[in-house]
Every structure is written in structure tokens, then in C-alpha cells.
Amino acid sequence: MTMPVVAPVVAMPVLPPFPFLRGLAQAPALDHMVETLAAVATSDAGAQLGSVTNPPLSDIEWRTSAGLTPYADALAEMEARAVAVGTGDARELLWMLEHPPVYTAGTSAEPGDLIDARFPVIPTGRGGKYTYHGPGQRIGYVVLDLTKRGRDVRCYVHALESWVIAALGELGVEAFAVDGRVGIWTLDRGREAKIGAIGVRVKRWVTLHGFSVNVDPDLSHFGGIVPCGLPEYGVTSLQSLGIPADLATLDAALALTADAFLETVSCP
Fold first, then answer.
1. For the chain, which terminus, N or C, has the lower number of CB atoms within 10 Å?
2. pTM to 2 decimal places
3. 125: pLDDT confidence band, cut at 50, 70 and 90?
4. DSSP 85-99
5. 228 noted as active-site residue
């Protein structure tokens, strides 16, 4: 009796859930994936916009801090770096980090928006009202010299919003900005909810602070404040939206879209 020939079962590789990562499906570790994408993002030598040439990403320090960085420590380091960037003694900086739970008060924070000071409350020089930072939230501090980039603060803020929106788009999130409502928004179960915050300060044409994106924070921690003074809107996260991304995956998407951000900081 002749036995039938059974073809061997070949396990097909499981593709990462995000299209921009599929070319790296065989990467041995996510760290390698992030390094590869960062290299892709730095491959362009920059763009000429009007009379302003934007320095390329390769001229900027990209820093990722592991663990939780105390807010006060990060603030002091960022401010010192901004001074050094302004005098030409240091490179510009894109700094990705996380903070322990903390509420920060912007320059227009209203006392009534602080409902329960369950975490430290730290005044800060950025614009905006109260916001929360904590584990599971990616913070991006952006220290750029706008004297090299057109000295247009409004254009810079728009470019920063567009960068975060583009990175979230790589993860399958349809995010958007809303006129008169600073931040990054998306739909969660049919309702508009905030997934990211924007808060900036510009001192002597050097930018400070930047953005935050909710990856997988404890959203109940936002209950101690009225986030950004908008009680009628909730907050959401990648996890709440069912997006299986972690901080490193978001960092990879940010690296992939960073060149486009730098090209649009200076309005033509």
C-alpha cells in the first residue's frame, strides 16, 4: 500500500500589525526595529523651504530614556539644554521619556480645574492648562532652534501636531487636530477623545516642552484634573482603542515621520 505524501507544514511568519513594520518582520528584537527605522528617518539630508534650510535629523540628538524620569529633573535638564542650543554649544534635541505620576500646570491653568491633587502638582512655563503625565505615556521634549527654522511659532506648533498625527496614522489611528482646541484627538466609540497633548514654550527662539501621547497609561489618573480645561471631552489611549502598540513601537513611528516634521517646521 502506497502511503500518501504529506507536504510538510511550514509556519508562516506572523507579520507585525502595523504596515510600516512589515518589512522588519524578521528583526530579532524590537530594539533593532527601532534602530533601523531611525536610520531610515535620518537618511534624508533635509529640505530647502523658501530661504530657510532645515538642519537634517542626523544633526539632532535623538534620546530615549529608559524607566521613569522625575519631572523636575527632566525640566532642569531640558532648560539647560535649551540655553546651550541657543548659544550654539549643544545640538538640538528630540527626547523621548516617561515620568512618574504628576500633574503639571501651564501658564493658563485655572485653580478650579485641579479636582484632586493626588499626585504632585508642578507649575511649568509651557502654555496651556493642567495635564497629567505618568507611566505608559510617551513624552516627547523638543528642543529646536527656531532661528534656523524661520522663527514662526504658529508654524512650529502646527508641525508638531502634524508629526504626532502622522506617527499615530502609522499605527492605524485616525487622529486629528481641532481649531481652537489644542491637542491631538481621535474617535473612541464614536466620541471625540484626546489621545495626545501639545504644550510648548519658546525662549529666545529655542523651543521647550513638546507633546505627550497616551499609549497605555492608567486613564483614571486623569480624574484628578480637568484635562486642558475641557470637561466635556474624555481621554483615550492606544490600549483603549485596541491598538497593540508599546512605547518602542510609537517611537519607531515617530522616527519614521520625523523628517517630514522637520521639513514643515519652517513655513515657506
1. N
2. 0.81
3. confident
4. HHTTSS--EEEEEE-
5. yes
